[in-house]
Amino acid sequence: MSDAGAHDLNSRAARMPRLRELRQMARIEADPRPVNWQYQVTLRTEPLIGAFRDPAARLSLRLAALRVSRIAARYRDRPLPELQQALADLVPRLRPDRLSNGPALQTLGLISAICHQVQGLTPFPTQIMGALAICSGRLVEMETGSGKTLTAALSAGLAGLSGESVHVVTANDYLAARDHESFSAFYEALGLTTGLVIHTVPPNERAPAYRARVLYASNKEIAFDYLRNRITLGGAQGPIRLALEAVHSGAPRAAGLTMNGLPFAIVDEADSVLIDECRTPLIISETASPDPDWAHSALSLADDLREGRDYTVDGQRRVVELTPRGEAKLADSGERLGGIWRNSVRRNHAAVQALSALHLFIRDEHYIVRDGKVALIDEFTGRVADDRALGDGLQQIVEAREGVEITGRRLTKGRMTYQRFFRRYKKLAGMTGTAREVAGEFRAVYGLSVLALPPPKRSRRKYGRVRIHAGQDAKWQAVARRAEQVALQGRPLLIATRTIRASMALEEHLKAAGLEATLLNAAQDADEAAIIAQAGEPGRITLATNMAGRGVDIMLTDAVRAAGGLHVILTEVNEAGRIDRQVLGRCARQGDPGSCEMILARDDGILDKFGSRRTRSRLATWAGAQAAQKRAERLMARARLDLLRYDLRRDGFLGFLGGPE
Description:
By secondary structure, the chain is of the alpha/beta class. The protein contains 25 helices and 20 strands. A seven-stranded parallel sheet has the order 3-4-2-5-12-1-13. Strands 14, 15, 16, 17, 18, 19 and 20 form a seven-stranded parallel sheet that branches. Helix 21 (528-534) links the parallel strand 17 and strand 18 (541-544).
């Protein structure tokens, strides 16, 4: 960087006192990757200059990929045993820290040839480039439909043969199980053992899975297993301390652990796992005895208050604050209820939690009621978060509000952020279709350089114009008319909604128009695989939340391709533009034809919540919707950094106890 550029950064930092505070807290961070706050001075979402497009790196990877492709073509028609023998001869020459030299390229060529024989798949040069970039510790952006699943398998195979253990981390259990099943035979042909960890795998079967050379796991399962191990260790740090404890006790405390370290992680859908998930910390808790009276009393306190007079609600920051008048009114209610409610701290906290449950948590948007229980929904993936519950009594208040059985409050035993967990891997890499918007955050927090790779085939996706209607009814009617037009052409449709509530409302409008649709959301997740398998049939209409976004591959017939391919309608922009790109990327994959469009309304959630007064007026435009989305992205980026900031500060407070976990 030039002296002028450095001076500019320093002058900007001087105008942000909080940045210096963050840097001071970063000094106590014990993780191997230091936080480089220099790259995130303004919390902007644009990529860094030079961090996203690297012509020299792309040229080097392209030349290496051509060499690998020639090697694969030379071996492609030879018998599998001969390929395996040639691979065995090369393996001793591999080194984990040199996976781009001559032996590594020859090995990758043999791996590609074996993939062709076992999987029936011939890797594109782009996929080979991606595998080499991942093995070098980069995060690659590959267009949706470029075959990231095969890219991960190639890189995991090369790294595994070099002696490294590999964790292929996916965004959910469905993708982990699907990819593991798809490539088990491939890894077996390479001589590598594989393991799978999803929520249905019992604890006593996880240790053998972690000892496999290549492990497929969802991010939640692998992160919580690590946190459970940390709790089992009781804060023990380092191999010397563990060895001393083993001598003192006569038996190693690690005997009951499932994991055997954090070697090399290949994160699929990296922006979802490493960015979006970071808004929620990992928390392991134990359940206390249920206290239904507390939850119902908290709701009764909230019922006596009036918005605007006794409290305010900030929907953007998702914060409820009491006014002095509201606190005085609560004091009168506390005297009437007696007992613990005379304590102002407990009383005000309970009232704020109850008001938050009433105003900030909406059924069929933030949670569903299933089997007599309140289940939270991950807003980014659209899936039920079975292992997640609201804290500080919120879960119990929501349960009381819905009239279901009230569970016990959860007492925290261990806590960690996703940022800290993934930075503890010895080596970290990943891939996604949408990284450019958060390239700076990847570099600042994880030390990951983002590299964009060209698609294997030119995209044939056609974009329709964005239409914004006056209200929800007008929008749903427009969607129904458009769906009927496309279905009559013999083309399948994927209509994406942001919430379960919206998908159910649209289903009613389609029924009124005489159209039959298949619903895919968190309430119907048991049939996900079957619904996705049929979504590419001619005239099929599939309504889906973000569940149909990342990793979903809708297969098309020749008749559908001839008719124009899959058509995607996005009915509401999400709080991150990356999610919109993922959903729209379900069409026109791998050179197939396809089209997409957006049909919105002025009172959509993000426009109403984050838009300006002009955006919410009759003059609402697509530019206004984009501005609202950018504002939401900035607020989420700040929330993620604030969470990491709190975690670093917590280290300083609790360091004398032997560690924060």
